[in-house]
UniProtKB/TrEMBL annotation:
Organism: Microcaecilia unicolor
Chief localisation class: membrane
Gene, per the UniProt record: SNAPIN
Gene Ontology molecular functions: SNARE binding
Example GO BP: lysosome organization
Keywords: Coiled coil, Cytoplasm, Cytoplasmic vesicle, Membrane, Synapse
Any Gene Ontology CC annotation: synaptic vesicle membrane
Primary role: Component of the BLOC-1 complex, a complex that is required for normal biogenesis of lysosome-related organelles (LRO), such as platelet dense granules and melanosomes. In concert with the AP-3 complex, the BLOC-1 complex is required to target membrane protein cargos into vesicles assembled at cell bodies for delivery into neurites and nerve terminals. The BLOC-1 complex, in association with SNARE proteins, is also proposed to be involved in neurite extension. Plays a role in intracellular vesicle trafficking and synaptic vesicle recycling.
TM region(s), chain numbering: none
Localization in the cell: Cytoplasmic vesicle, Secretory vesicle, Synaptic vesicle membrane
Residue ranges that the Swiss-Prot or TrEMBL entry lists as coiled coil: 78-112
UniProt protein name: SNARE-associated protein Snapin
Family per similarity comment: Belongs to the SNAPIN family.
One of the Pfam families matching this protein, by short name: Snapin_Pallidin
InterPro entries linked to this entry: Snapin (IPR017246), Snapin/Pallidin/Snn1 (IPR028119)
Length: 127
């Protein structure tokens, strides 16, 4: 029984059907993940801009005040947070690009296999 299953599962057509089914199963999750990554990247750009504005405002307040208040440590913390946001954004951007390339490769391979299957089915004589 295992031999019969192995021979059917080992055929190229069965593998292609399995690959296509797996791709269709994963496609919505990959697309949703891509949308979420894009939204996070946009929000991180906004956060980075807000951090820059806040740091500039703190520097301006520090310069304008007659009473000396040391805001430099807070500005440094903000700039450190900004650096981390930029780092995470770069990591997300790289991951999103890899995901896009992987999705493109899978779609290309699926199209190639589908065309191969159709050409094989079209050229084989019917019984």
């Amino acid at each position: 029984m295992a031999v019969a299953q192995g021979s059917v599962a080992g055929t190229p057509a069965a593998r292609d059907v399995f690959s296509e089914g797996l791709l269709e199963l994963l496609r919505p999750a990959v697309q949703q993940l891509d949308l979420h990554v894009h939204a996070v990247r946009e929000s991180q750009v906004d956060l980075r801009e807000h951090i820059d504005n806040l740091a500039a405002e703190l520097c301006r307040i520090n310069e304008d005040q007659k009473v000396t208040m040391d805001l430099d440590p807070y500005v440094k913390k903000l700039l450190n947070a900004r650096r981390r946001v930029v780092l995470v954004n770069n990591i997300l951007q790289n991951a999103q690009e890899r995901l896009r390339r992987l999705n493109h490769s899978v779609a290309k391979e699926t199209a190639r296999r589908k065309a191969l299957l159709e050409s094989t089915a079209g050229s084989s004589p019917s019984t």
